[in-house]
């Protein structure tokens, strides 16, 4: 019998035993009647049993995916089986399957060969030796594949990528999936990083940033069970369709309830805006489709979004907040009725003394309540019932009038005040205004006048909100993930830092995919600089797992020529077809080539293929042409909330974060892709897993290679 056959049989026997034990435990649990009464302790026990039941149901299909033979120095050797959830055996209650997030399981991911291995456990560093690392594919209770990625008895013992390459070669459906069986050492380091750190991750296209961030959430929930809760964690993602695309990963990892939203939607809710600023198709079209507008904006020195996302603007708002605090107590004494007076000096003393540590809005609230109590005490001193009645009436009116003299400490009103939108300004702001670039000031004032809040005003509005209000636990998070963070501004992150405990962030992005030149950052230092050195850590992911070598090398060339960056992706050794570069000037030749490129998705070989146009209008036209040909496709515009797979037609800027078995980029010519659009084209090309087609015109941008 070959070595492989004996390994396979050994694992089959092991699987039979494991499944029998799991089935047995599940049966026992199911035999306990479900508790539906009011007893709190019983309810908690029932919830725990239900959790256990769900875990076993999942494990009964695919109990584990890996085996690691680790001999801990001085202890008996035991093969460790690693799965999505830990399971103990029925007899000795010994661990039968180890949860992938447990400290010892980290060895499965971090071991990269060698005679000794160690992992960090709560009790200290555990050292030993790894003799076998085995990937095991089980689907619906059947053993499908056994691949040794390390075996010390093999002729060439080295950790191989064979299993990873096999996994990457599979076709993807319309959802991102978990990668627990093939997490790479550099990814594992990020997943297991300490909670109270602002992690900043620069990862090339396809390096697994989004996937890793989701696994990190599952890890944090496991490792810090007592300190964090799923519903107090949030993922900020670029749009609702992307949220739909990633929605399967957390449930696959047994994690639910984590909030997933766009920054815009969340911010609008916190501030209480009636209308959410446009960041759907209308907002994006303004930048990517409206060429005239784009030229006009580009000639301006300052993009409003860049200024309003800067720390300079934040500093200005800090000065504004100081002024609000200094000037918000009305410049008058309070006189509940003629002849009785509470001096402003005394009110100020309360405001600046006892209540000093409350935010301004809370101080205002407490102060007005205290004045009311003071009035009640004074009323008791009334000489007669008639005087009491008279004074009470007066005091009521004057209390109301006095409260009205206080400025409205609502963040929207304060912001309007800064841009002189209020007739009787509550605070003098001329000097502050003078610090805002004139063009930004005018544009913001004009849009506020129309009652419109722009997306780039949200950071300031939230900052004012956090500056004057108390942020209670319903508003703050245990951990925040920011995906596509290269499009976030430093100010946005600084604001979010007010809403999270212990700077607990996972901030991930790729500067080479920073296509929103009117916002975002040019260097991660802009974000790292927001935190003290010991509060933050930076990781770079350079290996790309999504695309074949041919696609990555082609996309890298675009970046090298068009941007001159050194942030290039290193492919995993997975080879595929050469990139197809086809000249297609006329609509007819274009459609013919597209139909040819769609063959594999139409005959079921691929599950997803995307046609990426330069603009939304062109995507609509393409969609209509395909429909006229009888093809079923999905048009993706910025307002779509679900991603269906199959054939998708979309403008390239909306493809960020997504991936497809094959990608067809149309209209690659100088008219559609200007000198500044290399990153946009790079994003488009790096969406492809196995096959990339580029349909180019007569005049091609300098950064595009037409021969490979
Ligand atoms: N360790 C891994 N094992 C298997 N597949 C992986 C691994 N890491 C990443 N992948 C796969 O690579 C693809 C890209 O992952 P993901 O979308 O998370 O990358 P990203 O860095 O966020 O990409 P981009 O910035 O280009 O949107 C996914 O299909 C993911 O499943």
TrEMBL record:
<feature type="binding site">
    <location>
        <begin position="203"/>
        <end position="210"/>
    </location>
    <ligand>
        <name>ATP</name>
    </ligand>
</feature>
<dbReference type="InterPro" id="IPR014016">
    <property type="entry name" value="UvrD-like_ATP-bd"/>
</dbReference>
<keyword id="KW-0175">Coiled coil</keyword>
<dbReference type="GO" id="GO:0005829">
    <property type="term" value="C:cytosol"/>
</dbReference>
<dbReference type="InterPro" id="IPR000212">
    <property type="entry name" value="DNA_helicase_UvrD/REP"/>
</dbReference>
<feature type="coiled-coil region">
    <location>
        <begin position="1"/>
        <end position="28"/>
    </location>
</feature>
<protein>
    <recommendedName>
        <fullName>DNA 3'-5' helicase</fullName>
        <ecNumber>5.6.2.4</ecNumber>
    </recommendedName>
</protein>
<keyword id="KW-0067">ATP-binding</keyword>
<feature type="domain" description="UvrD-like helicase ATP-binding">
    <location>
        <begin position="182"/>
        <end position="548"/>
    </location>
</feature>
<dbReference type="GO" id="GO:0003677">
    <property type="term" value="F:DNA binding"/>
</dbReference>
<dbReference type="InterPro" id="IPR027417">
    <property type="entry name" value="P-loop_NTPase"/>
</dbReference>
<dbReference type="GO" id="GO:0043138">
    <property type="term" value="F:3'-5' DNA helicase activity"/>
</dbReference>
<dbReference type="GO" id="GO:0000725">
    <property type="term" value="P:recombinational repair"/>
</dbReference>
<dbReference type="Pfam" id="PF13245">
    <property type="entry name" value="AAA_19"/>
</dbReference>
<dbReference type="Pfam" id="PF13361">
    <property type="entry name" value="UvrD_C"/>
</dbReference>
<dbReference type="GO" id="GO:0005524">
    <property type="term" value="F:ATP binding"/>
</dbReference>
<dbReference type="InterPro" id="IPR027785">
    <property type="entry name" value="UvrD-like_helicase_C"/>
</dbReference>
<dbReference type="InterPro" id="IPR014017">
    <property type="entry name" value="DNA_helicase_UvrD-like_C"/>
</dbReference>
<keyword id="KW-0347">Helicase</keyword>
<keyword id="KW-0378">Hydrolase</keyword>
<keyword id="KW-0413">Isomerase</keyword>
<dbReference type="GO" id="GO:0016887">
    <property type="term" value="F:ATP hydrolysis activity"/>
</dbReference>
<dbReference type="Pfam" id="PF13538">
    <property type="entry name" value="UvrD_C_2"/>
</dbReference>
<keyword id="KW-0547">Nucleotide-binding</keyword>
């Amino acid at each position: 019998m070959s070595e492989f056959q004996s390994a396979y049989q050994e694992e089959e026997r092991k699987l039979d035993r494991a499944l029998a034990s799991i089935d047995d435990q599940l049966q026992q649990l199911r035999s306990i009647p479900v508790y539906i009464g009011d007893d709190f302790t019983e309810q908690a026990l029932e919830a725990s049993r239900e959790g256990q039941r769900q875990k076993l149901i999942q494990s009964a299909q695919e109990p584990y995916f890996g085996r690691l033979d680790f001999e801990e120095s001085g202890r008996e050797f035991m093969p460790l089986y690693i799965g999505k959830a830990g399971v103990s055996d029925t007899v000795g209650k010994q661990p039968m399957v180890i949860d992938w997030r447990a400290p010892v399981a980290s060895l499965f991911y971090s071991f990269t060969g060698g005679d000794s291995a160690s992992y960090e456990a709560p009790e200290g560093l555990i050292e030993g030796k790894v003799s076998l690392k085995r990937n095991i594919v089980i689907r619906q209770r059947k053993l499908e594949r056994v691949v040794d990625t390390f075996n010390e008895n093999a002729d060439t013992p080295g950790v191989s990528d064979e299993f990873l390459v096999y996994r990457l070669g599979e076709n993807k459906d319309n959802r991102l999936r978990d990668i627990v069986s093939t997490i790479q050492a550099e990814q594992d380091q990020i997943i297991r990083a300490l909670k109270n750190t602002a992690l900043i991750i620069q990862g090339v296209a396809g390096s697994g940033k989004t996937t890793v961030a989701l696994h990190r959430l599952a890890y944090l929930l496991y490792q810090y069970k007592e300190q964090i809760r799923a519903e107090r964690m949030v993922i900020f993602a670029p749009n609702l369709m992307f949220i739909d695309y990633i929605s399967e990963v957390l449930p696959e990892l047994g994690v639910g309830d984590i909030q997933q939203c766009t920054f815009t939607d969340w911010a609008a809710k916190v501030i209480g805006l009636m209308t959410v600023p446009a960041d759907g198709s209308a907002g994006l079209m303004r930048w990517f489709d409206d060429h005239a507008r784009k030229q006009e904006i580009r000639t301006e020195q300052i993009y409003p979004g860049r200024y309003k996302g800067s720390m300079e603007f934040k500093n200005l708002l800090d000065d504004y907040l100081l002024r609000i605090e200094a000037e918000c107590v009305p410049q008058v004494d309070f006189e509940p009725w003629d002849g009785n007076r509470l001096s402003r000096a005394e009110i100020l003393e309360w405001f600046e003394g006892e209540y000093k540590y409350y935010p301004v809005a809370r101080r205002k609230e407490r102060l007005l309540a205290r004045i009311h109590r003071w009035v009640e005490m004074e009323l008791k001193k009334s000489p007669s019932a008639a005087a009491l009645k008279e004074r009470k009436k007066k005091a009521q009116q004057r209390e109301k009038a006095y409260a009205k003299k206080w400025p409205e400490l609502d963040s929207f009103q304060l912001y309007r005040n800064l841009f002189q939108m209020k007739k009787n300004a509550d605070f003098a702001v001329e000097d502050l205004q003078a610090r805002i670039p004139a063009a930004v000031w005018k544009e913001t004032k004009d849009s506020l006048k129309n009652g419109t809040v722009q997306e780039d005003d949200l950071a300031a509005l939230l900052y004012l909100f956090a500056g004057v209000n108390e942020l209670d636990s319903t508003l703050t998070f245990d951990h925040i993930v920011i995906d596509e963070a290269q499009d976030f501004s430093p100010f946005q992150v600084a604001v979010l830092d007010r809403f999270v405990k212990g700077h607990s962030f996972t901030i991930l992005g790729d500067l080479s995919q920073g296509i929103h030149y009117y916002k975002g950052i040019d260097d991660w230092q802009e974000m790292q600089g927001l935190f003290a050195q010991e509060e933050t850590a930076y990781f770079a992911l350079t290996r790309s797992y999504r695309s074949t070598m041919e696609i990555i090398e082609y996309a890298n060339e675009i970046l090298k020529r068009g941007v001159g960056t050194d942030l290039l992706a290193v492919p995993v050794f997975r080879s595929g077809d050469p990139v197809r570069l086809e000249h297609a000037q006329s609509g007819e030749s274009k459609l013919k080539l597209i139909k040819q490129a769609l063959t594999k998705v139409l005959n079921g070989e691929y599950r997803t293929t995307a046609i990426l146009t330069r603009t939304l209008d062109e995507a609509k036209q393409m969609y209509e042409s395909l429909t006229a040909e009888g093809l079923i496709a999905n048009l993706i515009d910025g307002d779509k909330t679900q991603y269906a797979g199959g054939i998708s037609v979309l403008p390239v800027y909306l493809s960020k974060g997504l991936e497809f078995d094959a990608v067809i980029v149309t209209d690659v010519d100088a008219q559609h892709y200007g000198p500044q659009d290399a990153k946009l084209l790079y994003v488009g090309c790096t969406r492809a897993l196995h096959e990339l087609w580029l349909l180019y015109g007569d005049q091609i941008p300098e950064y595009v290679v037409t021969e490979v």
